[in-house]
Hints:
Radius of gyration: 20 Å
Number of strands: 2
Shape: globular
Structural class: mainly alpha
Mean pLDDT: 79
Helix content: 55-70%
Amino acid sequence: MYVMTYIMFAVDYFTDSAANRGSMKDSIPLAPLQKLAWFNLIAFAAAAALYVVAVPLLAWHFHRTLADASVPALGVFGLCGIWGFGSYFLHDRRRRARVKLDEREDSIYQRAAMIGMFMFWEVFVFLCMGVWAVLTYVHHRTTVPVSFLPLLVFTGLIVYTVTQSIAILVQYKRSGSDDAL
């Protein structure tokens, strides 16, 4: 519990600092959606970095090939479960209520969710058809293993969350440079 509190504090501190190019003097606080987006991207980057490190280590330790070690190493993406703590950035701790978003922020959030859902469906359909094609035409199997389906859904969740976070940051950047989204 204390680790999560420290991580939340660190993300809050560094995102405030990053908004003013590292200077804490006259710092520009980030909007709650920007903090949420940075938190999601940092959690994904940490999971991806751990995966890149875990595959060669598992292969070396258990004397396997990289391909054989890559599937058990997918467990490090369970670190993306801390995305559930992202709602911390959307709550006002003083009033103990959800942060009220203005019309522009609400529009940014809705568009980012729409872009994330679009990318989810694109990747999900591509993966489903790709798995079917590989299993049918390369391996000459007519069924898809049931254990593969949750992996597709979890991959879709990652694609949705990362795409939504990037879309939030891009839209805030565009709205900061000019008033048209």
